[in-house]
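Let's see one such:

===
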Amino acid sequence: MSVTTYDVDQQGVALLRLDRPDARNALNTAMLEEMLGHLDTARRDDAVRVLVLSSTDHLALSAGADVRERLEEEGRVRRMELFARLYDELTGFPRPTIAACHGSCVGGGAEVAVACDLRVGGSNLRLRFPGAALGAPVGPARLVTLCGLSVAKYLLLSGKEVNAEQALRWGLVHKVAPAAATEEQSLALAAAVAEHPPEAVARLKRMLHEWDDVEGRSRAEGEGQVEWQRSGPGLPYES
């Protein structure tokens, strides 16, 4: 049974939705694999001009890694490799990406959001980076680029939850929409971006990333995540 959906409209806007509402779209191995498959499809499709990441339930983009997924040690390492690949693929996607950040946007879900180029926050947004509490070496690579060193330190070291108003003030989202309209407004933003010449847009994104080296930092951070899972305590498991 699929846990994601994927479609492309006539304007070249691809919509990738997480579809596991009973688990608040917690990211398990199957969902990570499906997301990476859709990203590969979108990357190879010249008709795609913008990619929107959303979910079928406006109460949660994603609550993060599925710590209840039953995995042996090898499976946990592989899942962490998939997380690292997903962050890298989103960060380095050659065309603009937009995240519809409604409801719970925590841990891996928050990382997915900040790996995108643009973000629309739902009025019910609850954004949190719990890596410090888990001992997980994840977050700085993309977050510092997004909101600066000072705010990144606060978010990562405190693990405090951020609402839509705070997220907008700190530049974590670019606009705030009513919770149920977050995806709709993300698609509207995507349609506006899709009207621009795709070659110029792709080149601008590439220039920005080359000068900032966010993709290089993302790869280095991902290597550290995988090693932490392989030889350190790794993500906890809840029965």
Summary: Residues 61 and 131 are 18 Å apart (CA to CA).
